[in-house]
Amino acid sequence: MKMFTSWYNVVISGGYHTIFIIGAKISGFYRALLDRCWARQQAVICRYQSRSKQKMRIVALIPFKKDLTLIEDPTSADDETMEDKKPDLLRLEQQRAQADSSEWLHEGFMLIGLPFREELRDDFKRFEEHQTAGGTPELEQSQVEAMKKFVKRLTMSYNPSFYENPRLLSERSALCVEATGEELIERKDTLEPYYQIPTRLQRVGSEIEQIIEKFGLTDEDKKSEPKGRKRKPVDAPDNQPEAKMMSIRDCVAAEKMSDFKKDELLNMAVEHCEAPKGLKSKTKNDIISVIKEFLADHPSSTWDVNPKK
Membrane spanning segments where (predicted)? Predict the structure, then answer.
């Protein structure tokens, strides 16, 4: 062990393990170290090697105890004097979160691996490079306070028993339905965001109104229209002149029947010339011949068409 430091200065890298002693030979020293580190709210920085062939690592031993009352005043200089101190707000929140959690909490040191200097990333330079030319606008104190109130209203104590896996609940419910025929387990997703839970959304209703007011989110910014060619709306009137309608006899006389597509000619033949649908297997010229023969046999028959060209 090399040094002691406040655990608020420990940078967490990866997961952690809990160390606790089983046996009575070294439990006295271990318990004394745990009590003093917990009272001072300090972590131990040391070298750790779990196996003989494993690489040596720098780790932090962060103490944890279920009793949150014996926390030494950090301003106190006397190591021998230790009084019952009132835990601060953070300790109170931890105490609430530890209610009914004795099954998964154990007293001891949490072993947390620390990164080496070359493994640390300085993200501040990256953020500075991507800043806009105008810079970040300064926030007013009222805006900061409004966001603080919003976050505080949504901050709750954490306990694994408070939040269950919705996938496991669904599987258990399916087993109950299969075994008993009744849905005994209520499938409730406790991991939903706050705005999908009516009670939580109602809890921050006033804070949301303050945020909208302080940040001016009700003002509709006029969006600048993009330069370039605009698309004509579907319902907009077409300024171009419409194509001239012609009768089918005029199209035949002007030799414009070939301007129509085969499907259009087939529809004309079926609808107006009473031709069978089997005409679809014929060629385009064959369909035109059928229409011309029908017009020749029925001089009074005609209909309007719109040639493409």
Answer: 6-26
Asked if 107 and 157 sit in the same domain, the reply is no
pLDDT tens digit sequence for 124-157? 776 666 655 556 677 889 899 999 999 988 887 7
Residue 230 within a domain: no
The per-residue pLDDT for range 24-57, each reduced to its tens digit, is 556 677 888 888 888 888 888 988 888 888 888 8
CB 176 within 8 A of CB 182: yes
- What pTM was computed for the model? 0.32
SS3 179: helix
Residue whose C-alpha is closest to residue 60's, from 116, 21, 4: 4
> What tokens does 27 get?
């439990």
Alpha-carbon torsion (260, 263, 269, 272), positive or negative: negative
Is residue 44 assigned to a domain? yes
Go through the chain and tell me how many residues it has. 309
**Cβ contacts of residue 8 below 8 Å, gap of 6+?**
41
Q: Assess if residue 205 is contained within a domain.
A: yes
Q: Which of 73, 99, 124 is the last residue of a domain?
A: 124
How many whole angstroms separate alpha carbon 290 and alpha carbon 309? Answer: 22
Whether the Cβ atoms of residue 109 and residue 44 lie closer than 8 Å to each other: yes
Q: Residue 183 belongs to what domain range?
A: 141-214
Unique residue bearing structure tokens 């707000």 = 89
DSSP per position, 244-295: PPEEHHHHHHTT-GGGS-HHHHHHHHHHTS---GGGGGS-HHHHHHHHHHHH
